[in-house]
Design goal:
The protein has 74 residues and is mainly α. It has four helices and no strands. The protein has one domain. The protein has helices spanning 10-17, 23-29, 33-39, 45-66. The model has no long low-confidence stretch (mean pLDDT 90).
Amino acid sequence: MTTPLPFRNPDELAGILGVDIPRDILVEALTHRSFAYEHGGRHYERLEFLGDAILQQVVTLELYERFATLPEGD
């Protein structure tokens, strides 16, 4: 059984989320690789890679600053 999504198009989703995201990027973020392979277009994995890299940078900086006196490995 599937549950219908609470939005009909990407612009409506952006409004629900209260964010201003370019439509093409939002569609890319919502597109699975298998769908993109069958229908053409981009999929979310490129954005996922970028998000992971940004998250790693933010966490690394926070740990570096929070534990400035600890030696490496502790």
